[in-house]
Inverse folding.
């Protein structure tokens, strides 16, 4: 019986990010800048998941995240769960939470927005966390969940 | 307000609106004052503008200040491919305040992040034009004596019209009741209606001006542009319903005034111009006093 605990216990200390939608794995890697991380990292994708259909998982040895950094993935992996591992044991479980402000992840839907014409990091206020709604702090237009495009 | 940028009408509080209106009243009494003598303000108009630019330049001139700037990005460094970032960085070394109009939405907010100088937004695309809103408020206060509890009719393109959106936000601080009159395709966006609901203010929506116009204290007209319609037949069918004529305002309240941000094309019949209820040309005069007030308060003159 190979369950999740067994997979998780494969690392001694670190973080497991579970329940990432499979098609968002590479965006999560990029948002967390894992390509620049030198720690030992294992990726799994297209794993069966009742909740998500196909899910992805990332195991990071010796790597721990601050809330503010991990919450950056909430936009594309709102169901993601974190298991914090110390000495092969899950010592803490965390969920991601959408921050009040999002910088540099999503694109503003408004073609006339200055952020789509000059080299500027986009900045949004999150005006609705359930049905994700972003308000551009520059052009003040709303980008709703249907139109969110990750940069 | 000292050194504060004015990008969006909601950057300022109700008290700050009132302070600007009070100061504008002083400038109306005595408009030529040498408060800006020997000082330099930039007016950067990345798209051509006549009324707004002349109004700002008149305000600065009446304060005795000097102006540097341009009125067309094709003749400026922008044509050579300079970014807004670089232009603002450079111009910041030349003046004390930047007045900017730019076709991209959010450009003025971005400019205010680049420089330490105060930035005055003179229109960023279809987004914000706060000095217009303040001059609208001044015109309303001046003609009605009081900004509170007014019946405000907004007519025409309520979907894309930035002036009506900003005016709605400002007047929602003064317990106004709103009447939105527009074709179906150009109705007031939901976000503004929900703002009014949250503030527990009443609003009515209708497709045509009817007898309710008799309750109006202010009629704020906007232009219904043909290119806003997906169906040209729909435009032809509805356009005349949004042209204000003298017979439509018979029986309205004696204090009622008609405002329009201008330029007018045909949405107010020229016959109305002589009607004492027409106020759109005086409105532009008020714009100069209001802009004098905004500049003098931001620069703490």
């Amino acid at each position: 019986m190979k369950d999740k605990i067994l997979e998780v216990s494969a690392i001694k200390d670190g973080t497991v990010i579970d329940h990432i939608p499979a098609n968002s794995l590479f965006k999560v890697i990029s948002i967390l800048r894992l390509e620049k991380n030198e720690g030992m990292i294992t990726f799994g994708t297209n794993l069966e998941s009742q909740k998500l259909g196909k899910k992805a998982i990332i195991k990071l040895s010796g790597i721990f995240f601050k809330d503010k950094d991990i919450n950056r993935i909430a936009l594309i992996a709102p169901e993601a769960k974190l298991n914090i591992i110390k000495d092969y044991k899950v010592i803490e479980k965390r969920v991601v939470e959408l921050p009040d402000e999002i910088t540099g992840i999503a694109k503003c839907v408004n073609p006339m927005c200055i952020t789509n014409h000059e080299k500027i990091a986009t900045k949004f206020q999150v005006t609705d966390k359930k049905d994700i709604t972003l308000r551009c702090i520059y052009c003040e237009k709303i980008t709703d969940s249907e139109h969110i495009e990750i940069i | 307000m000292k050194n504060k940028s004015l990008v969006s009408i909601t950057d300022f509080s109700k008290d700050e609106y009132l302070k600007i209106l009070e100061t504008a009243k002083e400038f109306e009494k005595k408009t030529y004052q040498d408060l800006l003598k020997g000082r330099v303000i930039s007016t950067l108009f990345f798209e051509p503008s006549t009324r707004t630019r002349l109004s700002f330049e008149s305000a600065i001139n009446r304060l005795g200040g000097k102006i540097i700037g341009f009125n067309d990005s094709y003749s400026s460094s922008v044509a050579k491919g300079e970014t807004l970032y670089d232009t603002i960085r450079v111009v910041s070394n030349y003046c004390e305040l930047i007045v900017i109009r730019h076709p991209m939405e959010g450009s003025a907010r971005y400019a205010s992040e680049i420089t330490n100088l105060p930035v005055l937004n003179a229109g960023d695309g279809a987004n914000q034009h706060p000095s217009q809103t303040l001059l609208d408020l001044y015109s309303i206060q001046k003609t009605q004596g009081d900004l509170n509890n007014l019946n405000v009719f907004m007519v025409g393109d309520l979907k894309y019209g930035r002036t009506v959106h900003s005016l709605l936000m400002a007047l929602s601080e003064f317990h106004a009741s709103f009447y939105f009159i527009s074709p179906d395709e150009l109705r007031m966006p939901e976000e503004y209606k929900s703002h009014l609901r949250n503030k527990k203010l009443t609003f009515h929506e209708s497709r045509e001006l009817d007898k309710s116009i008799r309750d109006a204290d202010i009629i704020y007209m906007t232009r219904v542009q043909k290119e806003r319609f997906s169906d040209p037949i729909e435009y032809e069918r509805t356009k005349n319903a949004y042209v204000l004529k003298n017979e439509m305002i018979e029986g309205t309240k004696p204090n009622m005034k008609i405002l329009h941000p201008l330029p007018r094309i045909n949405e107010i019949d020229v016959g109305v111009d002589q009607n004492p209820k027409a106020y759109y040309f005086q409105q532009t005069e008020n714009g100069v006093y209001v802009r004098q007030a905004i500049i003098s308060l931001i620069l703490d003159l």
